[in-house]
Design brief:
Elements lengths: L2 H12 L3 E5 L4 H8 L8 E5 L3 H11 L7 E4 L1 H10 L4 E3 L4 H12 L5 E6 L4 H10 L3 E6 L2 H13 L4 E4 L1 H9 L3 E4 L3 H34 L3 E6 L4 E4 L1 H6 L15 H4 L8 H4 L3 E8 L2 E12 L2 E11 H16 L17 H16 L4 E4 L6 H11 L7 E5 L5 H9 L17 H4 L4 E5 L6 H13 L1 E2 L8 E2 L3 E6 L3 H6 L5 H7 L2 E4 L10 H15 L6 H13 L6 H19 L5 H7 L22 H19 L4 H8 L3 H9 L1
Helix pairs in contact: 3-4, 7-8, 14-15, 21-22, 21-23, 22-25, 25-26, 26-27
């Protein structure tokens, strides 16, 4: 037999129902006769005692034995049910049992009485009335009442008494003829019911054990209460939140909620039966988030469940969700050929990045103003390198707390800190093995983590938080910043040794104002995307043609990101205006491109009287913009038409 089969067999034996059949009278013989029929379904033990003696025997056995269900009958069964907390099945008297017993009684005498526990069977009354039989009906609750009843029947001339074992025995003792009421079939049915109850009990116990195991391991506190606010169940997390982690859970059970957890109220969940979710309450030094949910059984409310979460845990989860949004655990999407590069300066930059990607694995430091596309360049370098098929992971070093950034970059071991994932977690350096990690806003990294990062760059290995062994990693690092790192080094805000480790290969992205030749291509690309999202792709080129002169005279302090925002704003403006915006509309939609305004109007302030040079400059600039618009933003073509150099055109537009 295999180990799995052996384990299954042991499990089956462990959960085999155990039934105790209890009787001190004639039913004992029937129990013994039927028990072998159920040997494959249950372990049946016969206890030949009744009433108080049976209770004492059962309680003694329960100290070292297991019992799932008790089977008994009549007043003995009622007594056991009242004094024991075990499921109990009563042997029921059926119509066939009554007819069979009366038939046997008629063979002895016509003077018959039937005595049953508490009530008589409805079938018996119908039978007696139907056949006009001279049968007396009596009932009893206790053994003394049964003895008194039989004496009274004997005085009335009754010769045969039909009833349970107690009644039949008492009749025989008093000189009457006792006929036993129960049959094999009624006992057999009781055993079948007992087996089914034991099975359901086991299923419910297993389900309860599973739920209890879940509750015990939940990080949220859980407490269940009944309609009187008494505690029915509680988990260890609730004890910790209540400041009583060493208190046995049993001490909470059955006590009022206000006594064990006075700061947490049941609220209206018990009176109104409605869930109350997300309530924030102060318990001692803790801020807790409490959810209250009513519990119903068969449509009737029986209590409520309160789940309690520490606000610190909520904040930590929120931070990790934010981090998950920031960390792009995917392959890079952009390539270097997608970068708008019409200007000589940008073409040279792209060629340099191609060389860095294909000829070197050294660290790259990308510098540039916000919005110039540093991550796009980083992704392009990755996709042009031998690591293109491997992971590209990006994280903003300035977006998170020091501890959170540390655990995400370097990972952590199991139990390294409160709330740590069971089994630990690999950091980004491990996850990016053989690929590239992009550290955006590297200038925002805390000095403590700069030291750890320096070791990773030097030793090519990482140690998790709470770990003792270093893990080798093969990762290319690309860092980016909009800050002056060298100035930060001089101000002792950035480690000098880390700066030189990062600044091996340099990429300096010029701001948009320094590469006007790229503006038209960028505008077309970004407008096509924005207007396509708005469902207006057919209007994109016309809008670009109308606004390009304005764009060429703007300094774009937000760089490509500002240009992208302008495209998005114009796309939505076209939807609102149901068409291409006119000059006044453009001034409202893009006020930053029109310079100062006169209060109360959308027009530029006119030149002061007599300022001929100012008037001339405005006229000249308007003419230059008109020609540039006719050339669809092509500065080379516009300069050729105007008979000036492209540099002169740019200077005059900027004047």
């Amino acid at each position: 037999m295999s180990p799995e089969d052996t384990a299954s067999r042991h499990a089956a034996i462990a959960h085999h129902p155990v039934i105790w059949a209890v009787s001190a009278y004639r039913l004992t013989d029937i129990f013994r006769g039927i028990a072998p029929e159920f040997s494959a379904q249950a372990d049946i033990h016969i206890i030949n005692k009744g009433f108080a003696d049976a209770v004492d025997e059962i309680q003694a056995r329960l100290r070292h034995e297991r019992c799932d269900v008790i089977v008994a009958a009549g007043s003995n069964g009622a007594y056991l049910r009242e004094h024991l907390a075990l499921p109990l099945v009563l042997v029921k008297v059926g119509g066939f049992d009554i007819l069979a017993a009366l038939t046997r009684a008629r063979q002895v005498s016509d003077r018959i009485a039937i005595v049953t526990h508490k009530t008589t069977a409805p079938e018996l009354g119908k039978f007696i009335r139907l056949f006009d039989l001279p049968i007396k009906e009596r009932s009893y609750e206790t053994a003394d009442q049964a003895r008194h009843c039989i004496r009274a029947l004997a005085a009335q001339g009754i010769a045969v008494v039909v009833g349970p074992g107690l009644v039949a025995n008492l009749a025989d003792e008093l000189g009457l003829h006792g006929v036993f009421l129960y049959s094999l079939d009624s006992a057999r049915e009781a055993f079948s019911d007992a087996v089914e109850i034991a099975r359901i009990k086991h299923v419910e116990a297993s389900r309860h054990a599973q739920l209890d195991a879940v509750l015990q391991h939940l990080s949220d506190g859980v407490v269940a209460i009944d309609m009187t606010q008494k505690v029915l169940s509680v988990n260890p997390a609730m004890l910790r939140l209540a400041g009583s982690p060493e208190t046995p859970m049993a001490q909470w059970l059955g006590k009022p909620l206000r006594e064990v957890l006075p700061a947490v109220r049941a609220g209206s969940v018990l009176t109104r039966g409605w869930p109350d979710l997300g309530s924030v309450e102060q318990v001692g030094q803790r801020t807790l988030v409490i959810n209250r949910v009513p519990v119903f059984e068969q449509g009737v409310q029986t209590g409520a469940v309160l789940t309690v979460i520490d606000s610190g845990d909520v904040e930590q989860v929120t931070s990790r969700l934010r981090l998950h949004q920031q960390v792009k655990n995917r392959h890079a999407r952009y390539h270097l050929h997608q970068v708008a590069a019409v200007s000589t300066r940008m073409k040279q930059l792209i060629a340099l990045c191609e060389t860095y990607a294909r000829r070197s694995d050294a660290t790259v430091l990308i510098s540039g103003e916000s919005g110039t596309g540093k991550e796009l360049i980083a992704q392009g370098i990755h996709n042009a390198s031998r690591r293109a098929a491997e992971p590209f992971l990006a994280i903003n070093c300035g977006a998170f707390t020091e501890s959170l950034l540390e655990s995400e970059l370097f990972g952590y071991e199991d139990g390294a800190f409160t709330g740590a994932r069971r089994g630990g977690k690999a950091g980004l350096f491990e996850s990016a093995h053989l690929g590239t990690i992009f550290l955006d806003e590297i200038g925002e990294m805390p000095l403590v983590l700069q030291t750890r990062l320096l070791r990773v760059l030097q030793e090519k290995e990482v140690m998790r938080v709470g770990g003792r062994e270093s893990i080798p990693v093969d990762v290319r690092v690309i860092a980016a910043t909009h800050r002056d790192l060298l100035g930060m080094v001089e101000a002792q805000q950035f480690r000098q040794d880390l700066f030189y480790r990062l600044n091996i290969l340099q990429v300096v992205i010029p701001p948009l104002r320094q590469r006007p030749e790229d503006l038209a291509l960028l505008a077309v690309t970004l407008f096509d995307a924005a207007f396509k999202r708005a469902g207006l792709q057919d209007q994109a080129r016309d809008i670009v043609k109308s606004v390009l002169p304005l764009f060429m005279s703007h300094s774009w302090p937000g760089n490509v990101r500002e240009l992208e925002n302008a495209a998005e704003r114009l796309a939505i403006g076209c939807i609102a205006l149901h068409g291409i915006p006119g000059p006044d509309d453009l001034q409202r939609l893009l006020p930053e491109l029109h310079g100062p305004r006169v209060a109360g109007s959308g027009a530029r302030p006119p030149a002061a009287a007599g300022e001929l040079k100012a008037v001339t400059r405005q006229t000249e600039k308007a003419h230059l913009q008109s020609v540039l618009s006719e050339c669809t933003g092509n500065q080379a073509e516009a300069a050729k038409r105007l008979g000036i150099s492209r540099a002169t055109l740019w200077r005059k537009l900027r004047a």
